Amino acid sequence: MKHYITASNPMRAQFDARGDHVGQHFSWRFEDGVGTVTLNRPDRKNPLTFDSYAELRDLFRSLQSATDVRAVVITGAGGNFCSGGDVHEIIGPLTRMTMPEMLEFTRMTGALVKALRDCPQPVIGAIDGICAGAGAMIALACDLRYGTPAARTAFLFTRVGLAGADMGACALLPRVIGQGRASELLFTGRAMTATEGLAWGFFNSLHDSDAVLTAALAAARELAAGPTFAHAMTKNMLQQEWAMSIEQAIEAEAQAQAICMQTQDFRRAYEAFAARQKPAFGGD
């Protein structure tokens, strides 16, 4: 069996939370506790390839142990977020694959979403222009999404003869915008406008194209300055509690808070409050 799910780019080996790196498909910049991923094939609206899927998956997996990185922003270059899987570099080859090779690919794309959801850092999407297919799923997997009036988000899998059930779309999208709205977008593949995205809760806020990344970075820096162990716990509980009853969730949150109460940040917050000062969180 030929393995398509590889990564020729040295980004994975180079990755260092304290450095800046430019890969073939995306760049990484680290500053003030915030990592910024920029999809950088602007001439083609930042499509994904077999390699870039794998590289992004491995990057977000590596963030699980990158304690210096306290928040992450993901954006696209050239006025667009991501146009999804490259038609010629992915869809064409898929038509010539065997079933096991296709399953290897679809499991790998899902692994990217799981890596985004499993990394402890809050991930913020700064989304402008085209946000389609797998690009829409990357945006959906973010914890917060800042958009622009020009953002057009389309889960267009049915447009290429596939089910709307891709990379976790049928689980994630209804939880964000509601079952009926998600059903419409996943059946039709039509683009959700920025105004709809804001009204439906997909976008947390809208900003001008020249301001959306600045807004996302400001939010990321604010989160990075906060109690990052507690933020990671919040992200983890938001995900785990989807499969819990209310009773189970209440007990799980009692345990989560008891764990957080053992952190130094909890003590710092109390001492700062008592001294009428702003707490300086350390993430421990």
Molecular structure report:
The chain is α/β, with parallel strands linked by helices. It folds into two domains: 11-224, 2-enoyl-CoA Hydratase, Chain A, domain 1; 228-274. Helices cover 46% and strands 14% of the residues. It has helices at residues 11-14, 50-62, 87-94, 99-118, 134-141, 169-177, 179-188, 194-200, 212-224, 228-240, 246-260, 264-274, and strands spanning 21-22, 26-31, 34-39, 71-76, 123-127, 130-132, 144-147, 152-154, 191-193, 205-206. The strands form two sheets. A seven-stranded mixed beta sheet has the order 1-2-3-4-5-7-10, sandwiched between helices. Helix 10 runs antiparallel to helix 11 (246-260). The protein is globular, with a radius of gyration of 19 Å. It starts with 10 loop residues before the first helix and ends in a 10-residue tail after the last helix. The relative contact order is 0.11. Residues 1-14 have low confidence and may be disordered.
How many discrete domains? 2
- Give the quaternary arrangement of the chains: single chain
Number of helices: 12
| Secondary structure: number of strands | 10
| CATH 2nd-level architecture of the largest domain | Alpha-Beta Complex
Write the CATH fold name of the largest domain.
Answer: 2-enoyl-CoA Hydratase, Chain A, domain 1
Structural class: alpha/beta
The global form is: globular
Please outline the major beta sheet: 7 strands, mixed
Give the integer mean of the pLDDT values: 91
Roughly how much helix do the residues carry, as a percent range? 40-55%
Distance between the termini: 46 Å
Widest beta sheet: strand line-up:
1-2-3-4-5-7-10
The CATH class of the largest domain turns out to be Alpha Beta
Strand coverage percent: 5-15%
